[in-house]
Specification:
mainly beta
């Protein structure tokens, strides 16, 4: 749409819905549920520099379900559903589309396990993309035998776009085996085979995958140690063709094998020790790599200390790791100490105020650091927060302000700063009205000491904001069955212009709704005002070329609907 253009769209729709629920022969034999809707819609649209266009359409929607022998060992179910975006109780600005879905499921239930066979077809038709068809076939089998549990899963999904001839096929087979000889030991085994076939306009791709894995866990109830381990084998083969595919990327052959083990030991209430080892082998087109990794760590976290009205916590940890398989073995040692101080205050009216401050210092020694960095790096982090809570008997509200600063004490002295404010509330303003809302403001800043590197100027804080507020009135103007709802949703610079940058996109929406019920007749008036960033095309008078940029557009929509229910539904 060119600059200085406006567009207006209006429409009128009438909908008739009917539903039923009954049984065939006997209630235990078969039940039928269904709904059918007819909508007659007329609409007109036009721009300021073009002729007005109008149209009329009849839209059919509905759903149905047939359930046969639902309480038996062989329950059967068939279903269908049809939707149309032009039939909706809410305002929408998306393109019109129609979708339908139908299929069936057949089950076989027995004490040792069950089986299920299902099929469904989904279609979606729109003026822009044409008709898309998706077929899905599923098979599920399970069997339980004493301490073993077997489960087989198979499915096939096919997607087709009739207008372009594109298609995608995905086949998956999986066999799962669980073994639990006693409550402290469990073994999980998996075999997975998958194949995908894509035929798209930009090219084709065929992928085949095979995966074998086994994991074991030992968790004794009266023992402080937990052990876990596993092995995994993975094979992937792909073939691609297309305009943007070279001979070097036309095919991929990948083999991977991995084995790992981990141990956690609780020395006492405050001390925990963990260790782990990992071996990984990869073969890519005949190029083999072998890597290993070993880790060990200890954590000490004692009980809190009461210091007057404050609560003091502290803890320390140490960990080490060793990795092989690259050009040089990598070794790293990490030491960390942290402590915090917190206090809760009780205020008038029953609300509480909580405040805390924390500090942590860590040192990392590694032989993998660049030559320009020191062998040992130290990191200092400060943090603090203040939060206010309102008691639940007067609604609920929470305000929280937090800030943190983390910086390296040596090397390039990089730093990261974060300021975050959150507010949320749900406050009743009367017997039939209430306010709910939330707000988030955030500012982040990162960089390095400007005295060390003047080529990177400080960009300052990068800010963002988002929020929403809603008002509910169950008795508007004191009338029963007359309800009002107002929702305001804002984000980025649409919320607070001072907290945004020029590249941020605006997004705001104000939705107002009035509902009134007269017996089984429901009246609704809906007004939507929204603002968002949209593409704008303009013509350059000097060159005659068309330029495209983004501008903020305001959209206004209003809708009135009448709904009447008949029968017992």
């Amino acid at each position: 749409m060119f600059q200085d253009q406006t567009s207006v769209q209006s429409g009128l729709s009438t909908t008739l819905n009917a539903s039923t629920s009954t049984y065939i022969w006997q209630p235990w034999f078969a039940r039928v549920n269904g709904a059918l809707g007819f909508t007659v819609a007329s609409d007109s649209s036009g721009a300021s520099d073009s002729a007005k266009r109008s149209g009329k359409s009849v839209v059919v929607t509905g759903n149905g379900q047939l359930s046969v022998l639902a309480q038996s060992k062989f329950p059967f179910e068939a279903y269908f559903q049809r939707n149309d975006s032009r039939v909706s109780s809410d305002l929408a600005l998306a393109n019109d589309f129609a979708s339908q879905r139908f299929g069936f499921t057949q089950r076989y239930i027995r004490p040792e396990g069950d089986a299920m066979l299902g099929w469904n077809r989904s279609t979606q038709t729109s003026a822009d993309a044409g008709r898309d068809v998706q077929d899905s076939l599923q098979l599920r089998l399970s069997h339980r035998l004493e301490k073993h549990n077997l489960q087989f899963l198979g499915d096939r999904n096919t997607n087709k776009r009739e207008e372009s001839g594109e298609r995608a096929v995905q086949n998956n087979l999986a066999l799962q085996h669980s073994y639990t000889p006693d409550p402290s030991i469990s073994v999980e085994n998996l075999v997975n085979i998958s194949r995908s076939d894509y035929r798209l306009l930009q090219g084709s791709n065929d992928a085949r995958l095979l995966q074998l894995s086994s994991n074991a866990f030992w968790r004794p109830q009266d023992h402080p140690m937990t052990v876990s381990g596993g092995v995994r084998m993975f094979a992937l083969e792909t073939d691609s063709s297309g305009l943007n595919v070279s001979s070097n990327t036309a095919g991929t052959r990948l083999l991977n094998a991995n084995a790992n083990v981990g141990v956690n030991y609780e020395l006492n209430r405050f001390t925990r020790i963990n260790a782990g080892a990992n071996v990984n082998m990869t073969d890519t087109r005949g190029q083999k790599t072998l890597s290993t990794n070993q880790t060990v760590g200890v954590n000490y976290l004692p009980e809190s200390i009461q210091v007057g009205a404050f609560r003091y916590n502290w803890g320390t940890s140490a960990s080490g790791s060793n990795s092989t398989g690259g050009e040089d073995p990598q070794r790293q040692l990490t030491l960390q100490f942290s402590h915090s101080l917190s206090r809760n205050f009780k205020l008038a009216g029953g609300s509480t105020l909580a405040a805390d401050a924390s500090q942590s210092l860590s040192a990392i020694a590694s032989n993998a650091a660049p030559s320009s960095d020191p062998a040992v790096t130290k990191q200092l982090t400060h943090g603090g927060s203040v939060s206010w809570n309102l008691p639940h008997d007067a609604g609920s509200a929470l305000l929280r302000l937090s800030a943190s600063d983390s910086r390296a004490l040596d090397g390039r002295q990089e730093f990261f700063q974060l300021i975050n404010f959150q507010a949320s509330s749900s406050l009743p303003t009367g017997s039939y009205s209430s306010w709910t809302g939330n707000l988030t403001l955030q500012a982040t800043r990162q960089g390095r000491n400007p005295g060390l590197d003047s080529s990177e100027p400080d960009k300052g804080f990068v800010t963002s904001s988002s929020g929403s507020i809603s008002y509910q009135q169950q008795r508007l103007f004191g009338y029963r069955r007359l309800r009002f709802a107002s929702d305001l949703r804002l984000s980025s610079d649409a919320l607070l212009p001072l907290l945004s940058s020029a590249q941020n996109q605006e997004l705001a929406a104000w939705d107002n709704r009035i509902d009134y019920s007269i017996g089984r007749t429901q009246l609704r008036l809906n007004f939507l005002l929204s603002s968002n960033s949209a593409p704008n095309r303009s013509m350059d008078a000097a060159t005659g070329l068309e330029n495209t940029d983004r501008v903020t557009k305001v959209r206004k929509s209003i809708m009135f609907s009448v709904k009447r229910n008949f029968g017992d539904f």
